[in-house]
Amino acid sequence: MKHLILLVAILLLAGCATQYQRVGLSGGYSEVQLAENVFKVTFRGNGYTSREKAADFALLRSAELALEHGFKYFAVIDDQNYANHSTYVTPTTTNASAFASGNAAYGTSTTYGGQSFLISKPSSTNMIMCFPEKPEGFSFNAEFVAKSLRETYKVSQDITQN
User: What angle do CA 67, 73, 75 make, to 5 degrees?
Assistant: First the structure.
C-alpha cells in the first residue's frame, strides 16, 4: 500500500509538463551570464515535456534575457538538445491463498505490478550573443520571439519578474 501511495504522489507532482518558470523541482529555465552580451540559457523539462517545448522555452528565455539587458537582437551561437532517460518499475505484489484438504494442499496466487516505464526528460541549452542593433547574418528579433512564444504557450509577461 505504501508503494501505491508513493506512486500516486509522484504522478500527481509530475502530472503535467514543466511550466515556464525559473528552475525548480519539476524543471524550468536557468541562465549564466558569460560576458556583457553573452549568455548560456538552459531549459529542463520533466517526463511530460516535449523536446519542442523545451527548445521553445529556452528560446523564449533567450529573448527575454536580451530584452532585460537592453538588447534588441540575439543570435544562437551554439545549441544543445538532449534528454535524460530513466526507467521506473512499479512495485510487485503477490496475493496468495491456500487451503488443505486431507493430504493435499491447494492454492492460488496473483501477482500485480512489475511494469516498466521509460521516462525521458528533455533539456535545451542555447549559447546566445546579444546585439543592440541588427547584426549582419542571421539573428532573432528578441521582442518578436518573446511575443510569439508567449502567445503560443499562453505565458504571461510578468512570470519572469522574480
Answer: 115
